[in-house]
Design brief:
heterodimer; A: 540 residues; 24 strands; B: 309 residues; mainly alpha; 12 helices; globular
């Protein structure tokens, strides 16, 4: 999930003339390279030591059931029930096997028997039940897990979850640690404050939080139930792991170059070349489970004519966007789902590419058919005496701002005048939800095709404000169809409509860049977003 | 002393009025910024029902005037509210974060004052020489250079190249040296300019000539007769600078990754954590008002002619 770490704007406490200036920094400071060509002695990997990670966002809480998002910083104390291996195949984790009843309403998870909480107490079905019930009660994202009716501990190692109606996305919900067994003793003791001292079954434990600065975990020495695809399913090699939250990009880069950080997450693409030149630095990329798109407010009169939307889609050339705005660290995308999300279909992707490949002439022709002409010769089209001019709303993210400028130029080619409006993330979302927008740049991310329901189903469509009864019907069916193959067919059908009458112009899938230094064994699972920290050894 | 007491009482009373005004302004301002904390609290894809339930839970479904009275009512009981996101009370968050910002502000104000007054005085004494012009130029540079630029410049030289100080993060006094200098430069420039112009006025006064004529040494004339008379406007400025230090701390803390009040403010604003934003701004307002009251009281120390009525 992308988060903008920068913000421009001001909030003045009037009468005191005190302006709280929101920090913002140039991302283009060029720092000359220390070209010491002394050969590096062959590094030897050792166990132990403290692994330092510079993470982009500080979690509000370490209680996974109170979080709205999970990343490496707030999931280390936990284990998921299921996982996907590096090829994307569903594999067991805490649940050694699982099955779904024929009516799709009852999920049965058989738990591994050798798992212990950080306290030493064994993992039981009862503990899992309490945790799942707590999730269904208090989690801000509980709706993502569907209509859970009841949870039972059928025997000491079997948990049964019953749904009011079948809910297929549940499998992908089990990959993350929103739904994860928590230590019932600690829960009883801490209650609402569980996040201050979480205890569960994960590879790291006893987090120490310095608000605004860092979270430090120590390894779980008794861990032996790591991911099936891990090289080291046992206790992590490192003794400690520190997540530091450095807010300014220039500072993060300098810290990394100084050698105080092993893993630098979310490297701005503009710095990659500079970091590559540092001896011993490895650049790792991973495709996100989501995409950035140019959205239409489909309720606006201008977009009621599908030809207008299609023309805009054809006028977008993704290649320069990827090259110039992202330094090549992205893949162009035409269809509704990226390859990293189940449900992605090559057939749909090719169809979309066919329809909306870069074609200025065809776009102009579509607009002419829709009644847009350049009557005053200023290069901007008009219809009914009004110029063809739209506002493009986006957040103050440096990459998106570059994308917006390129789009502005490209759309000018077809006679569309774009007014760029940059504001902060909260304002973009607010305006989008209220329908107070025309064109906008935004992103989405989730590990299940149900994302299409969340974005496009009429009552849920709060950004593109799309509405199509057939799409609604299909996306609702997709939620309740548990047979994988059948389910994917349903999405294919829905996506076909979403390509023909597009709610948006899909732009690109970001390859998030991580720089590592003085470590070995770094591996990121693109299907879960997990980094196997247990596999990592420090070499220096 | 009776007079001072009455003065203090009046000032504190008017301070209460100011703070009440501040609460209204903060509250309205926070209402006016677009964006909704509930959008962040419920993740990316909340349902209609979940949004309604959360709004009710936080009391955001009430009309703003009701919420304002509720807020002021709580405030009067010393309750700044609880962060929507961390579940920690705003007062606790401020207590956790303020020490770093306070140290940063104090070191900065000391550096700014000492450096500013010294070079300001030198410039005034050496008026129209190259020393004067250099001081004027440098102070202008200090005032106009953006904080983040100075910060990165200092980090690059003293932390990255020379490894004297840490690049970022808080780890005791040493890690506050570069941030304090960064934050002090603007203020030092302002104070130097004010000291210079105030001194120039004073130097022209007849008592200065008298003092010199009596045969008092030049340094003592400048310090005892000159500076003491020139310091009042400078002190006012120092009091006001304290406010911009709090604001400047936001940028400085962000670049240096210090977990102070400024970085807390920025996070809260980004997520629209209303109680935290309101709490920090209110806290800063109180601090600012008290500082300026203190400055006003200090006037008498330097200038016995000033009396509080």
């Amino acid at each position: 999930m992308m988060k903008s770490r920068r913000a421009w704007g001001s909030l003045a406490s009037i009468g005191l003339s005190m302006t709280l200036l929101l920090a913002a920094c140039s991302s283009n400071t060029s720092v000359s390279q220390n070209n010491s060509s002394t050969p590096q002695p062959p590094a030897t990997a050792t166990e132990g030591g403290t692994l330092v990670v510079a993470a982009p966002v500080e979690p509000d809480t370490l209680d996974s059931q109170k979080s709205t998002w999970l990343d490496t910083t707030n999931s280390q104390a936990y284990d998921s029930f299921l996982s996907r291996d590096m090829q994307g195949k569903l594999v067991p984790h805490l649940a050694e096997s699982w099955e779904v009843s024929d009516d799709g309403k009852v999920w049965t998870l058989k738990l591994r028997q050798d798992v212990k909480f950080h306290s030493g107490a064994p993992l039981t079905a009862e503990a899992a039940k309490i945790s799942i019930e707590r999730f269904a009660e208090i989690s801000p994202v509980k709706d993502l897990a569907g209509p859970i009716e009841k949870v039972e501990a059928a025997d000491p190692n079997t948990v049964k979850i019953t749904f009011k109606e079948p809910f297929a996305p549940f499998a992908n919900m089990l990959l993350g640690t929103f739904i994860t067994p928590l230590d019932p003793e600690r829960l009883k003791e801490k209650g609402d404050q569980f996040g201050e001292a979480p205890s569960a079954t994960g590879p790291f434990m006893n987090p120490e939080t310095k608000r605004g600065a860092s979270v430090t975990y120590v390894k779980n020495p008794d861990y032996k139930w790591g991911q099936v695809y891990a090289d080291n399913p046992g206790a992590p090699y490192v003794d400690k792991i520190v997540f530091r939250f450095l807010k300014d990009d220039d500072t993060r880069i300098l810290e990394f170059k100084k050698g105080t950080i092993h893993i630098l997450q979310e490297v701005p693409t503009t710095y990659v070349q500079e970091l590559q030149a540092v001896p011993g630095v490895k650049i790792e990329t991973s495709m996100e489970q989501g995409m950035k798109y140019l959205g239409f407010n489909n309720q606006k009169e201008v977009f009621k004519d599908v030809r207008v939307k299609q023309a805009i889609a054809m006028a977008v050339d993704r290649e320069p966007i990827v090259q110039y705005a992202l330094s090549g660290f992205a893949k162009p995308i035409f269809g509704p789902l990226p390859p990293t999300i189940p449900g992605h279909s090559e057939k749909i992707e090719n169809m979309a590419k066919e329809m909306y490949g870069y074609n200025v002439e065809k776009a102009k022709q579509l607009l002419a058919e829709a009644g847009y002409t350049d009557s005053n010769g200023d290069g901007i089209l008009e219809k009914d005496g009004k110029p063809f001019s739209l506002e493009l709303l986006l957040m103050d993210d440096p990459v998106l701002q570059r994308v917006a400028q390129i789009l502005q130029n490209q759309l000018k080619e077809i006679g569309l005048d774009i007014r760029i409006a940059v504001t902060d993330a909260a304002t973009v979302k607010d305006r989008a939800i209220k329908g107070n927008h025309e064109l906008f740049l935004l992103y989405f991310g989730l590990n299940d095709p149900d994302i299409l329901y969340l974005l496009m189903e009429t009552s849920n469509s709060k950004r593109v404000h799309y509405s199509d009864p057939k799409v609604d019907e299909l996306l609702t069916k997709g939620r309740t169809t548990l047979k994988e193959e059948e389910r994917m067919k349903v999405y294919e059908e829905a996506m076909e409509i979403l390509v023909k009458n597009p709610p948006w112009v899909p732009l690109y899938v970001t390859e998030s860049v991580t720089a590592t230094r003085n470590i070995e064994g770094y591996k990121l699972n693109p299907f879960t977003g997990d980094i196997l920290f247990g596999d990592i050894k420090i070499t220096k | 002393m009776g007079r001072l007491h009455r003065y203090l009482f009046r000032r504190l009373l008017s301070l209460l009025g100011t703070l009440l005004g501040v609460t209204i302004l903060i509250f309205l301002l926070v209402q006016l910024i677009p964006g909704d904390p509930v959008q962040y609290l419920l993740g990316e894809y909340p349902t209609e029902e979940a949004i309604a339930a959360m709004n009710a839970q936080l009391g955001l479904d009430q009309p703003w005037i009701m919420r304002y009275f509720h807020y002021v009512g709580k405030l009067l009981q010393g309750d700044l509210g609880t962060s929507y996101f961390t579940g920690i009370t705003v007062w606790q968050e401020i207590q956790d974060r303020f020490p770093i910002t306070l140290q940063l502000a104090l070191y900065s104000i000391i550096i700014a004052t000492v450096v500013g007054i010294i070079i300001g005085m030198i410039a005034a004494v050496k008026q129209n020489t190259w020393v004067d012009r250099l001081v004027v130029f440098i102070s202008l540079l200090g005032i106009s250079a953006p904080g983040f630029w100075i910060a990165l410049f200092l980090i690059w030289i003293f932390a990255y190249q020379l490894s004297i100080f840490p690049i970022s993060g808080y780890d005791g006094f040493f890690s506050l040296v570069l941030p304090s200098i960064t934050l002090a430069l603007g203020g030092a420039g302002m104070i130097a300019r004010m000291t210079r112009s105030s001194m120039l006025d004073v130097i022209k006064q007849e008592y200065m000539r008298t003092a010199q004529a009596k045969g008092a040494p030049r340094t003592s004339v400048i310090l005892m007769h000159g500076l003491q008379n020139a310091i009042i406007p400078v002190m006012t400025l120092i009091g006001l600078e304290f406010g911009s230090l709090l604001a400047g701390a936001i940028v400085t803390e962000t670049v240096f990754s210090l977990q102070g009040l400024g970085s807390l403010a920025i996070e809260a604003i980004g997520k629209r954590d209303l109680p935290t934003i309101q709490g920090i701004v209110f806290f800063a307002a109180v601090l600012f008002a008290l500082t300026n009251l203190l400055v006003d009281l200090l006037y008498t120390l330097f200038d016995p002619r000033i009396k509080y009525e």
